[in-house]
Design a protein that fits this description.
Length: 217
């Protein structure tokens, strides 16, 4: 029996919270040489914003101004001029604890490459960290032969990686460098919250206590 490893897509599907996203910044640029008559469209978050260039063709600055007008009326991103022919789209962050969803900007024009869209920053911000932990936790898993179902081993792999990703996220680390959620019992007035532990290793109390600090653990 072989146990398949969890990859990044599996990890994200099982534990969506492991992805840390930052607000995206895009540059939409009109090519001054290829400016032509026709419709220029910027699609952002599934919604189209258009400008129809007239005959004789508008110059690139006029087309940029024509696109900037409708783009300035939407709420997903702040739109501002960039250089002579570009528009900067900067994603507006949602209220915490929600993360930016991304803008998914695409463009089309009357001629190929007459308008382009380039992501310059933001988006998925911790892909390297996820890859590191997917590899680092392998030695902490039980042998494949000790698990009845290979799918359980794959889920265990994803959960252990997610545990360490959650544990090392800056927002989950307290002022002393320990886990901000490192508690056994919390009490406020008549309300009390106690942590439960799900044992997975025989006699390994230290590992059990550590894993109990996050939901995937």
């Amino acid at each position: 029996m072989t146990c398949p490893l969890a990859d990044d897509a599996y990890l994200i599907a099982a534990w969506p919270g492991v992805v840390v996203r930052t607000g995206e910044r895009w540059i939409v640029a009109v090519d001054p040489v290829l400016a032509a008559t026709g419709v220029y469209t910027v699609t952002m978050a599934g919604l189209p914003y258009q400008y129809a260039s007239t005959v004789p063709p508008d110059d690139a600055q006029s087309i940029r101004a024509g696109l900037l007008s409708p783009l300035s009326l939407q709420m997903q991103a702040a739109a501002s001029p960039q250089g002579l022919y570009g528009v900067l789209l900067q994603e507006v962050p949602p209220p915490p604890p929600a993360q930016p969803a991304g803008l998914a900007v695409t463009v089309s024009g009357p001629a190929p490459d007459s308008i382009t869209a380039t992501l310059i920053s933001g988006g998925d911000g911790n892909a390297t960290q996820r890859a590191l932990w997917l590899d680092a936790v392998l030695c902490g898993l039980p042998p494949c032969c000790a698990v009845r179902c290979p799918g359980d081993w794959t889920r265990m792999h994803a959960a252990l990686a997610a545990h360490w990703i959650y544990s090392t996220m800056p927002q989950n680390i307290g002022s002393t460098g320990g886990g901000a959620n490192d508690f056994e019992r919390m009490r406020l007035g008549p309300a009390e919250l106690s942590r439960g532990v799900s044992a997975w290793g025989a006699g390994d109390a230290a590992a059990d206590a550590d894993l109990a600090k996050t939901i995937p653990g």
